[in-house]
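User: Teach me something about this protein's shape.
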Amino acid sequence: MPLVLGVPVPRISSGLIPSVISDGRAAARYPAAAALGKESRMDTDHVDWLDRHIGNVGVPVVHLFGGPYVTVATERREIPEGSKQLLAFVALRRRRVERCKAAGTLWPCGSEQRAAGNLRTALWRLRRAGIEVLVADKWSLALRTEVVVDLHVMDRLATRLIDGTAAGEDLGVSTWWADALDLLPGWYDDWVLVERERLRQRVLHALEELSRRLAGEGRFADAVEAAMLAISAEPLRESALRAVIEAHVAEGNLCEARRCWRAYRDLVRRELGVDPSRDLLTILRIAEAGPRAATVPSAVRAG
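Assistant: First, the predicted structure itself:
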């Protein structure tokens, strides 16, 4: 198991997300990163986060992170097992879906008539459970216009961070980021895998930008935590490591920054047989050449 910045992290491959960060000290220092792999739950943190970002408390919310399930205000409603895939499929599409397309994708084995019957049964089970979040006619399905999907909220937040328009409540680290890095864990349908990887890449970029924004505001602990979330999902991701180094440099912790660089250098040499780009070392050398350079031991500056 490789060490990333001194923290044991399972090796990442094929876009899979590590299930745990095993170092207890790292879990204490970076609680949001340690949340990766823990069972998601509807707690006050999640409720408060959604309340801040949807601006309309009480509307039905489809939770795909740690779900699927539905909440109305503070009431959680469990989705019948036979209807979960249908609701997730429509929610991920973000638009009206043809019934035949949904039926053929979700129930590919058997005849078209049987698939159509399975879809009707899934819709009936949702209505019976009191979950009125879909509108259906003879030809298509869609979410009701007032329904909110947590994935869509997170996606918009990531977009604001990436394009530089995030502000205020957007600049925070919550357990939702960890959930967003592993959409619908345990689901391996092609339509889930594509969306999971798309969202994962978007969230990784957003976390890096979030780290830089937080460091710029002097919130160094949060800046390091945001970047560590990205690293825990992809230990070999150099842009995430750069965000951590920049946060340490901004706080004046040059020894921490150098330690992170060394750990990453050893990791990529061992796993990929290459060295990190020279840009990372350049960041350190520029910082060490400044006023604090005299406080950095020569053995550390020597690498």
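Now, about its shape. The mean pLDDT is 82. Residues 60-146 form a domain with the Arc Repressor Mutant, subunit A fold (CATH 1.10.10). If you'd like, I can walk through any region in more detail.
User: That's plenty for now, thanks!
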